[in-house]
């Protein structure tokens, strides 16, 4: 599969299209919220695992946003401060990109920059919502039930004491998704469900403590992130497997045919012709890598064969009938995530 590179305003180096699942984005506050597929990555040796959502990487250099009509906002790396003036979140330095007005010292993070106000007749609990900045008001969001805090932007109709977080207003009350075709999923407040209800997303495993999409009939849950940016149902990646891989939207126990690791209660991709099962994170693994603790290149192989029993990094046993990364006279790992943990050269 050819690697395509493109120069985009958000990063100093050219970015390559990615065909893997990732768990972070340098362009927004996406951290520890499950995984997303695709996007862009930087392959320059000076950058350590720089990854972007597609929409974050393709952010325009300048925007006009209704939260700050006085001046345009310019995409800025490491502005004077790291707090978004719309959602009020202080992102620290791990989210370096903001839309910034240098005249007014006004910041909007890339996630909020993509959230324009709804139309005046936006239907939420049969009330139109506007886009004011409030102060001194403490109430509850009409979607998730959590607090509305002073000094942030909200959709609100103060005359009727109604408020909603920006991120909540964009979620439909019911969705029909191919991952669960038999019934619609309803936007549900987590604490309203019984204690034994499944509150972990069936696709990414993230446990929702506030709101999620849920089917009461099937006890089937999906987090907001997977509903908003769902994984592909079918992936074609010839370097991983010769046939199409189809998402099995059910958490099962299986042994991954790429890395050989056995997992309990995980989501996999399945080849319907070969009965091959693959972790999401093992799709698109590079065939050759270099690590800083071995002199030779490390090559991914689908079958190790006898004579190798333990991983050369973690010393845990390796299944000879499945894949691993291999170097002459040494078996190094069972999955590439482990190599990147120890550092790549």
TrEMBL record:
SUPFAM superfamilies: Cysteine-rich domain. This is Uncharacterized protein At3g45840. Keywords: Repeat. It comes from the Eukaryota. InterPro entries: C1-like_sf (IPR046349), DC1 (IPR004146), Vacuole_Formation_Reg (IPR053192). Residues 66-113, 178-227, 240-283 form the DC1 domain.
């Amino acid at each position: 599969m050819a690697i395509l590179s493109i120069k985009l305003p958000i990063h100093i180096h050219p970015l390559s299209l990615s065909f893997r699942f990732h768990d972070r984005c340098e362009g927004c506050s996406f951290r520890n919220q499950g995984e997303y597929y695709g996007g862009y990555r930087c392959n320059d040796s000076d950058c350590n695992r720089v990854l972007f959502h597609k929409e974050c990487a393709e952010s325009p250099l300048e925007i006009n946003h209704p939260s700050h009509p006085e001046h345009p906002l310019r995409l800025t790396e490491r502005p004077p401060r790291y707090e978004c003036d719309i959602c009020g979140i202080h992102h620290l330095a791990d989210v370096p990109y903001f839309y910034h007005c240098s005249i007014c010292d006004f910041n909007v993070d890339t996630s909020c920059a993509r959230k324009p106000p709804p139309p005046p007749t936006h239907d939420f609990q049969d009330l139109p919502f506007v886009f004011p900045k409030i102060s001194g008001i403490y109430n509850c969001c009409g979607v998730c039930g959590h607090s509305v805090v002073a000094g942030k932007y909200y959709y609100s109709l103060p005359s009727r004491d109604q408020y909603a977080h920006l991120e909540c207003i964009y979620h439909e009350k019911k969705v029909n998704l191919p991952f669960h075709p038999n019934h619609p999923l309803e936007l549900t407040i987590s604490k309203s469900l019984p204690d034994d209800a499944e509150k972990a997303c069936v696709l990414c495993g993230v446990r929702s403590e506030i709101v999620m999409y849920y089917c009461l009939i099937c006890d089937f849950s999906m987090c907001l992130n997977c509903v908003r940016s769902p994984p592909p149902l079918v992936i074609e990646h010839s370097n991983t497997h010769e046939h199409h891989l189809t998402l099995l939207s059910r958490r099962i126990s299986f042994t991954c045919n790429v890395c050989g690791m056995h997992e309990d209660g995980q989501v996999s991709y399945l080849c319907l012709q070969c009965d091959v099962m693959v972790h999401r994170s093992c799709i698109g693994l590079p065939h050759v890598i270099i690590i800083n603790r071995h002199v030779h290149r490390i090559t991914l192989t689908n079958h190790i064969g006898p004579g190798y029993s333990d991983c050369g990094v973690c010393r845990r046993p390796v299944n000879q009938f499945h894949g691993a990364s291999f170097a002459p006279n040494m078996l190094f790992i069972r999955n590439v995530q482990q190599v990147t943990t120890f550092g790549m050269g």
